[in-house]
Amino acid sequence: MSHFFSEFSRGDNGNPYKSLRFLVVEDQAAARQTLRMCIQSMGGFSVDMAQSHGEAMSRLRNRMPDVIICDYILGNSRTGQQLLEELRREGELPHDVVFIMVTAERGYEQVISAVELVPDDYIIKPFAPELLRTRLEKVIRKKQVFSRYYLHRNSADWDGALEELDRLAQSPAAAHHRYDVMRQRADTLMRAERHGDAAEAYEAILEEHPFPWAKAGYARVLQRSNRLAEARALVDSVIAQVPRYFEAYDLKAEICTEMGEHGEAVAALQTASALTPHNWSRKRALAVAASRNGDVATVARVMAEVMAQGDLAGEGLEAVVEMTRCAVEVRNHALAAQLLAAIKPEQLDKAGEEIRLSLECLTVLAEGSAGGPRFDRIRARLVKMQLFSVDGAIDVVRAALLHADRQLANMTAAKVLAGPEARRSFKALLAVYCQHGLEEGFRDLQREVASQRLMSRTRH
Amino acid sequence: MPHQDTPIVDVIASGVHDTKNVLFDALMRIGVAAHEVSGNRRDEALDLLKDAGAAVEKATNRLSTLLSAYRLARHENPVVLMPVLVGDLVEYAALRSPPSAQDQSRVHVVRSEVCPDTWLLDRELVADCLVNATLNALRFAVSRIRISAAVENGWLVIKVEDDGPGFSPELTSHPARMQSGVGLFVARRVAALHRQHGRHGRLILENGGAYGGAVFTLMLP
Ligand SMILES: Nc1ncnc2c1ncn2[C@@H]1O[C@H](COP(=O)(O)OP(=O)(O)OP(=O)(O)O)[C@@H](O)[C@H]1O
Ligand SMILES: [Mg+2]
Prior knowledge:
Helices cover 67% and strands 5% of the residues of chain A. Chain A is built from 24 helices and five strands. Chain A has helices at residues 2-9, 29-41, 53-62, 80-89, 108-112, 129-154, 158-170, 178-191, 195-208, 212-224, 228-241, 246-258, 262-275, 280-292, 296-308, 317-329, 333-341, 345-350, 353-367, 372-384, 390-402, 406-418, 422-435, 439-459, and strands at residues 21-25, 46-50, 67-71, 98-103, 121-124. Chain A has a five-stranded parallel beta sheet, sandwiched between helices. In chain A, helix 11 packs antiparallel against helix 12. The longest helix of chain A is centred in the N-terminal third of the chain and has 26 residues, at 129-154. The radius of gyration of chain A is 25 Å and the shape is globular. Chain B is α+β, with helices and mostly antiparallel strands. Chain B folds into two domains: 8-74; 82-220, Histidine kinase-like ATPase, C-terminal domain (Heat Shock Protein 90, 2-Layer Sandwich), CATH 3.30.565.10. Chain B has helices at residues 8-38, 42-73, 86-96, 101-106, 123-140, 169-173, 182-193; strands at 82-85, 108-111, 118-121, 144-152, 155-162, 195-196, 199-200, 202-208, 213-220. Chain A binds chain B through residues 106-110, 112-113, 124, 126, 128, 130-131, 134, 138, 175-176, 178-180, 208-209, and chain B through 57, 60, 64, 67-68, 71, 78, 80-83, 85, 88, 91-92, 95-96, 116-118, 120, 122-124, 196. Residues 132, 135-136, 181, 183 of chain B line the site of magnesium ion. Adenosine-5'-triphosphate is lined by residues 15, 62, 132, 136-137, 140, 162, 164-167, 171, 180-184, 214 of chain B.
C-alpha cells in the first residue's frame, strides 16, 4: 500500500483520494449511504460497504482497503472497537491502513480513554465531508511520520524501533506527536523486556497526566518485573478511575492468578464479563480462572454460556483446548468428550504437534481408566516433544500420572521447572502431584531441578 | 458550584425551545425552496437551501451543547483530557461554525497565526465552546471577529473577540451568577473541569480587546 502514501505525498496532482479504497462499516442502511456520499463528495471513488462485524471481517480478509470508516455501534451488541481490537490482535490490520471510528456518542472520549488499542482518529456524527477530509489527511501524514518505526516494530526489531522513536522525539516534524512517541516508546521498551526502562518511561508519562492507558501500561510492566502487589494496586486505581476499562480487569485477573489469588481473578473477570457479555475470549478466561479456583459451578455455568454461543470451532483450536481443559478440570468428562468430538479433521491437519498432543492427553483424561491404550500409543511422541507450554506440560503430567507413568511425568515437569515459566507452573504442577498423593515426589523433583540449575551455572 | 439565578433545567428547556424554532425556520426555507424550484428559480432555491443547511448545522451544534449541559447538570464529569494540536482544534471549531452568506457579507473573520502547540484538553467539548462563542460573535459583531489561540505563561489562552456592543454588565461583573445561556454555562463548567497539576481552567468574559467589543477567553491549564 506504499503506492497510496507516495501518491498522497505528490499532493496537488488532482485528487489524492481517488486512488484510495474505502470500506464503510455501518449497520444502518441510511447512515451507510450518507457515509458513502460523504466520501464521494470529498473525492473518494472506490467505496465498499459492510453492514456487520462479520461482513466487515470477510471483506477485509478478502481485500484490505486503504481506509476503514467504521461506526462505533454495529448491531448484535458488537462494536467497532471490538472489530478494531480483533483485527489488531490477530495482526490483520497493516499499520498503514487508516481506521477512523465514527460515532454519535457524545461520551466517546471516555470510551477511547479506556482502551489499549485506539483507532487512528474518531469523528462525532453528524459531520461535514470537509471534516472527514481534514482528519483523513492528518492521519495519513501521521502514518508517514511513523512509517519507519512501524517497519522496525513489525519485524520485532525493538532496537531499531527505539532508535527511530528517539529520532522522532528530536524531529520537529513529529513535535506535535510527542505523546504518541512517548506511548510507543514505553510500549516498545516493555516488548523488548527492558522493564526498568519501560517503568521509567511510564513514570515520565504519568508525571504529565494520569492517563488510564499509561497507568495500565505501568501496571503491566510491574507485573512483568514481578512487582505484583504494586501492579495490583495500580490496576485497582485504574479501575476506580475508569470502571469501563475492561482490559484493566483482564490484567488484574492475570496479576491475581500469578499471586495465587484465584478468587480475586474470578471476581475481576466476572465483573468485566457481565459488562461485555459478547466477549467470548474473556468468558473463556473466566472459565479457566474459575477452574483454577476449583469453582466447579462457575466453570459449568460459564462453559454452558460459551457453548450456547455455538460454534467454538470458529474460535480456533486453542479455544477448544482451553475449554476442554476446563471440562476435565471440573471432571465433566462428557462435556470434554463432546468438545473433542466436535473438532474437524481439517482443523487438526493445520495444528502443530504440541496442540495435537495436548488434545490427545485431554482425550486420555476424558476417557479415564479406559484411556490406557491411547496413552501407550502416544507415549513415544510425548517423550520426544521438546517445547511444552505450561498448560500443555500439565496436560501431559496429568495423563502420565493417571496411568502411573511417573518417569514421563517427572521428565515433563522437570523441563517446565527448569524453564522461564517455572514460577507460574509451580503451583499447578504441585496440585496435580498432590491429587495423586505424590507431594513428596514433587518436592524431590523440584530440588533436583534446582541443584542441576546451580551446577550448570557454576560450570559456565 | 455557586448558586445560579436560573435553574439549569430551565436554561436547557429554553435552549431546546430555541432549537426547535431554528429547525422550524429551516423547514420553512426548504419548503419555499421547493416552490422556487418548481417555478424554475434555481438561484433563489439554492440560496434558501444554503441558509437552511446553515440553520440545521446551528441546530446540531446547539443540541450537542444542550446534551453537554445536561450531563454537566447531572454532575457527571464528561471531560477527558487528550493531547490535541491546538491549530487542529481551532480549525475544527471553524469548520463547525461556518458564517452564513449574510454573515459573510457583513463580518470579516480573522484568525491568528496557527498555534503549533499540543495541549491536553477535551477536543469535542472545547470545540463546542468555541463554536458557540464564534456563533455568538457572528450574531453581535458589526464587522470584525478575531479568533486566536496561544500558549502564555503555561496556559492555553483561546480568545474570540468582536466589535459588537460587548457583554452586558451583568455578564462581566457577576459571571458566576449570570443569566447566561446554555453555551456560556457549558463553557464555564468545561473550563473549570480542565484540571492539571492543581490548576483549573476558567472562562473570562470582558469587553474591549482588539476590536473594542466582547472578548470571550478560555484559559486552560
Ligand atoms: N459576543 C457577544 N456579544 C454580546 N453579547 C453576547 C456575546 N456572546 C454572548 N452574549 C450574551 O450572552 C448570552 C448568553 O450566551 P450563550 O451563548 O450562553 O447563549 P445564547 O447564545 O443566548 O444561546 P445559545 O448559545 O444556546 O444559542 C447571549 O444571549 C447574549 O446576550
Ligand atoms: Mg450562544
